[in-house]
């Protein structure tokens, strides 16, 4: 059974302003109700354009939240589709006018990732990067408290790995000899809980390959280990709590080498941008 739960975050892609589809009623108090909005992902900023009114009530169409602010901000977190946002404007005499405008919601998937070697959790998530080395595909999922990573490739993939993370968004600090990534943290070794792999923090004082060991235990790291999907394909999933990196911003830059034969091979020619949600 799929473990994925589907939700719909609202992103405005359709807005009718001053057209026949707007539902507007003017009261005897000569109130004009109107608004516009902008969106950033599922967060909407509403701008009140009403005239002749002194108080307001917003119905955001989600059967969950109302607002009496003049210019509210609402973040949607419910099942979506096409919803009607309604603004009702009042004057001091209690007269009112209202206007409704539609917003349309595309599908965004919310997954329930378990680090258990059962990779059905990842089926509906898009491939974030493809590679030509021992690792073929990468996916990630960052909603919630963790950064979840999934890799799929050849049977011999992920024997030894170096994973770099630029968590502070500053390429001028951290390891910079590969990809100009500014790596603040390194995981070196096979990415499994009982292996010899370990986390390191950059030692500072330059941008070379210089690290301080901070160990593996106690950081909340989880890994399924490499699991054979079939005779030609293996996969691995792992989890790192966001708190491990301290305060993270909107993105983390990521780079990786794998040991494929006698030397290390980089997976990808540039850092991978992991978007944090």
Textual characterization of the structure:
With 277 residues, the chain is mainly beta. The chain contains no helices and 23 strands. It has strands at 5-7, 23-25, 35-40, 43-48, 55-59, 66-67, 73-75, 82-90, 96-104, 108-110, 129-130, 135-141, 146-153, 161-166, 185-188, 198-202, 211-215, 222-223, 227-228, 234-241, 251-259, 264-266, 272-275. Strands 14, 15, 16, 17, 21, 22 and 23 form a 7-stranded antiparallel sheet that branches. Strand 12 and strand 13 form a beta hairpin. Mean pLDDT is 83; it is low at 1-21.
Q: What does the secondary structure layout of this molecule look like, with pairings?
A:
Blueprint: E1 5-7, E2 23-25, E3 35-40, E4 43-48, E5 55-59, E6 66-67, E7 73-75, E8 82-90, E9 96-104, E10 108-110, E11 129-130, E12 135-141, E13 146-153, E14 161-166, E15 185-188, E16 198-202, E17 211-215, E18 222-223, E19 227-228, E20 234-241, E21 251-259, E22 264-266, E23 272-275
Antiparallel strand pairs: 1-10, 2-9, 3-4, 4-7, 5-6, 5-8, 8-9, 11-12, 12-13, 13-20, 14-15, 14-21, 15-16, 16-17, 18-20, 19-20, 21-22, 21-23
């Amino acid at each position: 059974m799929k473990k994925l739960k589907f939700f719909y975050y609202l992103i405005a892609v359709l807005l009718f302003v001053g057209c026949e589809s707007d539902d507007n009623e003017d009261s005897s108090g000569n109130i004009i109700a109107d608004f516009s909005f902008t969106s950033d992902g599922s967060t909407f900023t509403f701008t009140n354009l009403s005239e002749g009114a002194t108080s307001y009530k917003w119905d955001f169409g989600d059967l969950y939240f109302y607002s009496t602010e003049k210019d509210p901000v609402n973040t949607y977190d419910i099942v979506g589709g096409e919803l009607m946002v309604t603004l009702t404007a009042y004057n001091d005499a209690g007269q009112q006018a209202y206007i409704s405008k539609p917003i349309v919601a595309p599908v965004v998937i919310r997954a329930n990732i378990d680090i258990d070697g059962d990779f059905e959790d990842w089926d509906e998530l898009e491939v974030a990067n493809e590679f030509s080395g021992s690792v073929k595909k990468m996916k990630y999922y960052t909603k919630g408290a963790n950064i979840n990573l999934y890799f799929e490739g050849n049977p011999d993939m992920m024997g030894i790995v170096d994973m770099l993370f630029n968590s502070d968004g500053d390429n001028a600090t951290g390891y910079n000899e590969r990809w100009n990534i500014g790596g603040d943290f390194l995981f070196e070794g096979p990415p499994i809980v009982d292996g010899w792999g370990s986390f390191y923090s950059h030692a500072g004082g330059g941008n070379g390959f210089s690290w301080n060991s901070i160990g593996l235990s106690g950081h909340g790291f989880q890994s399924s280990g490499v699991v054979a999907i079939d005779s030609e394909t293996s996969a691995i999933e792992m989890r790192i709590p966001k708190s491990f990196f301290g305060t993270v911003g909107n993105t983390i830059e990521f780079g990786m080498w794998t040991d494929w034969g006698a030397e290390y091979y980089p997976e990808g020619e540039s850092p991978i941008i992991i978007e944090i949600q």
